Amino acid sequence: MGKDKEKERNAPKDIKFDCLVMDVDCHPDNEILTTADIDGNVKIFKYSTTGENEELNTLTHHKKSCRRSRFLPNGEKFVTCSKDKSMCVIDTSTYEVVHTYSKSHKSPIYSLCIIDDNIIASGDDDGTLKLWDLRKQKSVMEMKECEEFISDMVIDESKKILLATSGEGTLTTFDVKKHKMRLQSELFESEFLSITALEDKDKVVVGDGDGVLNIFNKGEWSNISDRFPGHPMSIDCLVTIHRNLIVTGCMDGKIRAVNILPNNIVEIVGKHNQFPIESLSLTHCQDLLVSCSHDQKIKFWNISHLYDLNTERPEEVKAHRKTKKQKFFDDL
């Protein structure tokens, strides 16, 4: 008789690398993820809870470290950006580079935000933010409102308002339809490093270099409405799980589930043995969280139990997101 089918695990096995992984992003519909590493490589993997993870391809089109690799919402392409100032669009099915923006910024690109299947935003080390139209294959907006690097960005559900955090300690809002800046916060003492929008509370949460979660109300960007200290080191990445529940990636190597308003740390989801967390991503089923760290590993964490705290399961969350159109940035 042949071997029995391998028993399903609650999460895939770790994926090990030979260098530092800078970013990880999961495909919106399939068990596929893409990674960006410090050697400039872009790798694509198929992950599994029943078998071994499979490396599908390795791309070496960047000359310096690849800082971001993100799928478009339809999953047909993904975009990579690099310290070499280039940005590339990759076909997911063929792994071919379909377009290259060789000198997309004057400074190395630091962050990337996918707005929709055609429009993306990029931010660089010197505080310049650009909007790109992939159909026209060119930049349609360029603004420099910050003096330090654009650390992270998030787009609203209407795809109209983009919020960007900067290492100088500001939160800046941009109108992606009218191609102009809306508002900018006052200058905070600590650098702003990460951002995520809550689903139901008309708020965004910003992680800073001192380990504080700074909470902003819709339209009140000049100052915070609340702050939640509690992390021992900088909060380098954030992802919203559901409603007021987020997950934080901290420089101390721990991944925490945090409830916002009331503010409390729910649990330690996982850790990378004191190595800083670089990036977090939810899988398409939303039951798994993927993390990468300075320990040169991709790790998977089963977070399905966290939805019990909010009564709705992941499939209900998807329905909730599709039906509730007017949320955080409405009437801004």
Question: Summarize this, please?
Answer:
With 332 residues, the chain is mainly beta. 3% of the residues lie in helices and 49% in strands. This is DgyrCDS6414.
What does this structure look like?
There is one protein chain. By secondary structure, the protein is mainly β. It folds into 2 domains: 17-144, Methylamine Dehydrogenase, Chain H, CATH 2.130.10; 148-332, YVTN repeat-like/Quinoprotein amine dehydrogenase (Methylamine Dehydrogenase, Chain H, 7 Propeller), CATH 2.130.10. The protein has one helix spanning 314-323; strands spanning 15-16, 21-26, 32-37, 42-46, 54-59, 66-71, 77-82, 87-91, 97-101, 109-114, 119-124, 128-133, 138-144, 150-155, 161-166, 171-175, 180-184, 192-197, 203-208, 212-217, 226-229, 235-242, 245-250, 254-259, 264-271, 277-282, 288-293, 297-302. The strands form 7 sheets. A 4-stranded antiparallel sheet has the order 1-28-27-26, with no helix packed on it.
Total domain modules:
2
Helix segment tally? 1
Name given to the CATH homologous superfamily of the largest domain: YVTN repeat-like/Quinoprotein amine dehydrogenase
Distance N to C terminus: 65 Å
Helix-residue proportion: under 10%
On the 0 to 100 scale, the average pLDDT is 91
What ranges have pLDDT less than 50 throughout 5 or more consecutive residues? 1-5, 311-329
CATH architecture of the largest domain: 7 Propeller
Q: Helix- and strand-based class?
A: mainly beta
Order of SSEs: EEEEEEEEEEEEEEEEEEEEEEEEEEEEH
The percent range for strand residues is over 45%
Give the overall shape.
globular
- Give the strand tally: 28
Please report the first level of CATH classification, the CATH class of the largest domain. Answer: Mainly Beta
